[in-house]
Amino acid sequence: MNEKWFYGRVSSIEQQEDRNALKKQLERGKNGGCARFYWDIQSRTTEVREGLQQLIDDLKASSKGLVSELVVTRIDRIGSSSKLFYALMEVLRSKSIKLLALDQTIDTESLGGELTVDILLAASKFEIKMLSSRVSAERKHRMTQRKSHRFAPLGWKVVSDRYVLDESWCICLLEEQRCFRVWELALFAFEVFNECGSVRRTCDTLNKMFGTKSKVEARSRKTTGKQVIDRENLDDADFSSNKKNTYKRYPWGSLQWSPSGLKNFLVNPVNAGGTPFNVTTKSPSGKQLNHFDKWDCNWDTHEGIISREQHEQVKRIIRSNANNRWVGSKRVNPFANLLKCSNCGGALTRTSGQLQRGGKLIHYYQCTYFSLGRCDRKEMIRSDYLDEQVADLLVLEATRLAGMVNLDREKREEPVEVKELRETLAGLEKLPVNPFVEKAKDGIREQIASILSLHENVTTRSILVREELSQMFCDREFWETRTADDKKRILNRFVRRIVVDRRVVLGIEFL
Hints:
By secondary structure, this protein is an alpha/beta fold. The protein has helices at residues 12-17, 21-31, 50-61, 82-94, 111-144, 182-196, 199-209, 259-266, 308-322, 383-411, 416-429, 435-456, 460-472, 476-480, 484-494; strands at 3-10, 36-41, 67-72, 98-101, 156-159, 162-165, 169-173, 178-181, 228-230, 274-277, 280-283, 286-289, 296-299, 339-341, 348-355, 361-367, 381-382, 495-501, 504-510. It folds into 3 domains: 3-128, Rossmann fold; 156-212 and 254-322, Hect, E3 ligase catalytic domain fold (Alpha-Beta Complex); 325-511, no CATH class. The protein contains 15 helices and 19 strands. The chain starts with a strand and ends with a strand. The model is unreliable at 214-225, 242-247 and 325-329 (pLDDT under 50).
């Protein structure tokens, strides 16, 4: 069998403007004789997509010769990341599958084709950066003009670029015979916080008071194959958003509060008459919310529902709670943004820390959706158990890769320049660890991988991962002697996610 598979993607904006945008892509694949279709509704900058990941997994599991071509309308439908594109290309080459772009005549197997792809990806990245630059300039202009943001927090709405109180009716408590307007509900949240003294207790109190169950029936977020469609079912497919059952905030959803969402609401300067700016920072994994003490703010842009003094008192309480011994530590979390629950797909986060004898600090990780009732995985995994299991899996993968490296060296003689670079690298390995030496070693490894990729017809990235992992994790001693910062850097360099089921690490998905 020589089947053709198709991958389509549209951004959420495209889908909003034209509800048939994705279906039009898939129809073209159907007319081209494709038998199976994968799709996503996400930005091209998003590297972790369910449809694309399912496609890669299915290609890896397929027998050689089953699929002859992977069809897309354009290269940028795969994404703007060269790392992501060549990761897919590596899988296609291993299965002898040709990539076909309907609107672009590109031979990805030729040197000219690779250059063309690199230019297209670079142009796509440039376009994204230009859009980001314009958005950033517009935000700075609004900050200079003391204007509000486009969206308002609970209790507020934006009118003529200013925050005004939302006077619409929101909810009534039958038992107390009390009705709340939206801004009154926001003010009431502060009153409850002042009585409870902590974000989590306030969250539980509000959810109980407004009839939102603290524990609801768990909803699985496992991949259901929704982003995979056979040719026969294409006409009846529902091209809605990738996102599973999510709980949106008022007014798009219920009044259910989460601890993190409530904390961000309580420290929002809008409630005290200020407009915050620079609340997020870009990172390799996406935008990260800065600590509220690092936010910039224009004060006295409107009249708040609480005073500046009350606002500072709220932040002092939250800071003091964060310094308690029983909550998460400020120490570096090497597994940040990598741990995923095998049951629901949600992230595992540090929920508490315990200082043991000898000064050793043990953290506990739990699925973030458990406290909201969206997952039934109550069990936590200790940081030391997690670290040991991750190290075992890394050593196991390194052993496998080392066998591949040795086998390749036996089959073919390495180029002279590679041998010379390896000798230089071996000399640097004997030097004491410092940032300059590490940077030099990374540069040499990249040179080696670049040279070998031309001889082995695989991507530079795959060789780099293979070489580095096989050298780093030849034994447990390397991992055990690394600092938390080193572990975080290494994991972010090689690992896409770590799947955890209760207290067991099921596997590691590498980049």
